[in-house]
Amino acid sequence: MKIAIASDHGGINLKRHIIAYLQEQKYHYHDFGTFSDESVDYPDFAQLVAEAVVKGDYDVGIICCGTGIGVSIAANKVPGIRAALCHDTFSARMSREHNDANVLTLGERVVGPGLALDIVAAFLGAQHAGGRHARRVAKIKAVEQKYSNQVNG
Ligand code: RB5
After folding, report:
1. Where in the sequence is the domain holding 27, given as residue range(s)?
2. 3-state secondary structure of 109
3. Ligand 1 contacts CB of residue 34 (under 6 A)
4. What's the CA-to-centroid distance between 134 and ligand 1, angstroms?
């Protein structure tokens, strides 16, 4: 599994912690930044991960900011992205099983580092359950398609 990861300055410490875990677990990942504590704009980094996932270069993305909210909103603007903001392991697992989430977002100022790694493990360890959930995800894609047609047409 190939993972695209990024953060803004507000999520950089949590991102570093998650990267250490990904290395330990021997996951293939790429860090899309940011690389310093200098203040940056979270939509820029959310977009880098979202586009890499939609292009198929990476299977899933992980994005951290202060709350996880801004990067979640921004990533979900990219057609094909289903970003899930999860601060508990149950939601992380369900976001994959039911919603086929392809991006996990986390807030460094919300969740502690230990729980964050459990959330990452739950997300990466789960798979889409298919069946009735596939029908619902197809409906999400249909909504996306409908509004992209309106914008483009
Ligand atoms: C940056 O201060 C902060 O706004 C950002 O990390 C994030 O929490 C936005 O949703």
Report:
1. 2-152
2. coil
3. no
4. 32
The answer, as to whether pTM is greater than 0.85, is yes
Distance 21 CA to ligand 1 centre (A): 23
pLDDT range class, residue 148, cuts 50, 70, 90: confident
CATH code for position 118: 3.40.1400.10
The Cα 12–Cα 152 span in angstroms is 36
- For residue range 56-101, what is the model confidence (pLDDT) as tens digits? 999 999 999 999 999 999 999 999 999 999 999 999 999 999 999 9
CA distance 153 to 145: 11
Model pLDDT for residues 16-72, shown as the tens digit of each residue:
999 999 999 999 999 999 999 999 999 999 999 999 999 999 999 999 999 999 999
Q: How many domains does the chain have?
A: 1
Write the single-letter amino acid at 16.
R
